[in-house]
Specification:
17% strand; globular; 10 helices; single chain
């Protein structure tokens, strides 16, 4: 994938998990990687160091992407450093909190949609003018968008359903600008996400639904992002959702 060398890759939520794995992989291919974080500064600095050690360039940038103004600022920081954006990976997001619908509050609902929907849309809004030469946008959805999520996660699943559907609509809208829009949909992957939101018993229940008989790793998701980012590999692919779930869901 030598076409990714020197490309500017903006990855939101890149300090841990799948985002961190992607940042390191793009760095190893000689890309210029923006390692975004909200609160995990030390982890982001470690990822940036790994990117540069592997032969890439890195910019560490903090932003609270629940806010539209912060999405704009993150894009501005990227362009100020690297002049353009070739690939935008909207990886930032969270379940926020497991909560049944009878207990849902405005605050939790706003957080879920701000983190998973607003951040994606607004980062795209502000990045597109700096992708005038064409490029790739890759959104992170979830297997929860397909089956509705686990206990207390219906709102999270709904927000990821929005991401999946918007990915297809945006692919049509942006094709005239030579921008491809796709999404990666991980299944149950061992990242800080599940460390925070799922109990061992819940994870075991999920594992039993996976034909491969095990949970996935963040590293096993990275190849999907590299594929969508590379014009050589996926130049005729847009509006698609790639499931990475060990066979848990087969559309």
């Amino acid at each position: 994938m030598d076409d990714l060398k020197g490309k500017v890759i903006l990855i939101t939520g890149a300090s841990t998990g799948i985002g961190a794995g992607c940042a390191k992989a793009f760095g190893a291919l000689g890309a210029k990687v923006v390692v975004h974080y909200n609160s995990s500064k030390d982890a982001a600095l470690e990822v940036a160091h790994a990117v540069e050690t592997a032969g890439g360039q890195a910019l560490v940038a903090q932003a609270d992407l629940r806010k539209t103004s912060e999405c704009e600022r993150l894009v501005q920081l990227t362009v100020a450093k690297f002049s353009q954006i070739d690939v935008l990976i909207n990886n930032a997001g969270a379940l926020v909190r497991r909560m049944p619908i009878t207990e849902i509050t405005d605050e939790v609902l706003d957080d879920i949609f701000d983190l998973n929907v607003r951040s994606m849309l607004m980062c795209i809004k502000y990045a597109v003018p700096h992708m005038g030469h064409g490029g790739s946008i890759i959104n992170l959805t979830s297997v929860a968008a397909r089956h509705g999520g686990g206990p207390g996660a219906a709102m999270y699943a709904g927000s990821k359903g929005f991401v999946s559907t918007a990915t297809k609509g945006l692919a049509k809208e942006l094709v005239g600008k030579r921008i491809r829009v796709n999404a990666v949909s991980p299944g149950v992957v061992t990242t800080p996400f599940h460390d925070k939101f799922s109990t061992p018993d819940q994870l075991e229940t999920m594992r039993q639904t996976i034909p491969m008989g095990r949970l996935g790793t963040a590293q096993e998701c990275v190849g999907a992002f590299l594929y969508f980012a590379s014009e050589q590999l996926s130049g005729y692919v847009t509006g698609q959702i790639l499931e990475v779930n060990g066979g848990q869901f087969m559309p």
